[in-house]
Every structure is written in C-alpha cells, then in structure tokens.
Amino acid sequence: MPRRTISITDTHDDWLKTQVASGQYRSESEVISDLIRERQQRDAGIEAIRLAMAEDDKCGPGTPTPADVRTAIQERLRKNG
Question: Rounded to two decimals, what is the model's pTM?
Fold first, then answer.
C-alpha cells in the first residue's frame, strides 16, 4: 500500500483526531479512506445523473418525466453499485 504525506490545517487535524477518539475509526487513515469512498460514491451518482440527462436529450423534448429520470438513475446505481 502506498504511503503519502499530506498537509492539512490544524482544524482538519483536530477533526480527524476527534473522529478517531469517538471510537468510530481505528486510525486517521481509516477516516481519510472513508471520506474518499464517500466522494467516489457521490461522484458516481453525479455521473449517473449526467448519463441520464444525456439519454433524455436523445429522446427529444418532453419524453421522460423527472420521475422517469429518477427511476432510471436509481436502477443504474443499483446495477453498477
């Protein structure tokens, strides 16, 4: 596993330490890994929305409703994790 050196503010360092002290995480690295996973999931959701919008553009004006787009996004996220 690669090791990295990063610089963070004192405020962020305090927050990381608080997360570990809460017992929810065993280390600051776990906190950072969790944040990265959450961001990856968020980015995947945004990409799913972009793809759905692109598909909507191909269908022409007024074809799918917002509920149709939402359903398509939810199905795509379920399939792709």
Answer: 0.63
